Amino acid sequence: MARVAFLGLGIMGFPMAGFLARNGHEVAVYNRTRAKADAWVAKHGGKAADTPKAAARGASIVFSCVGDDPDLRAVTVGENGAFEGMAAGGIYVDHTTASANIARELFAAAARKGIHFIDAPVSGGQAGAENGTLTVMCGGEAAAFETAKPVIAHFAKAVTLLGPPGAGQLSKMVNQICIAGLVEGLAEGIHFGLKAGLNMKQVLEVIGKGAAQSWQMDNRGKTMIDDQFDFGFAVDWMRKDLRITLEEAKKNGAALPVTEIVNAYYGEIQEMGGGRWDTSSLIRRLRKA
Ligand SMILES: NC(=O)c1ccc[n+]([C@@H]2O[C@H](COP(=O)([O-])OP(=O)(O)OC[C@H]3O[C@@H](n4cnc5c(N)ncnc54)[C@H](OP(=O)(O)O)[C@@H]3O)[C@@H](O)[C@H]2O)c1
Question: Exposure pattern of 143-171 as b/e (b: 16+ CB <10 Å)?
Answer without folding.
Answer: ebbebbbebbbbbbeebebbeebbbbbbb
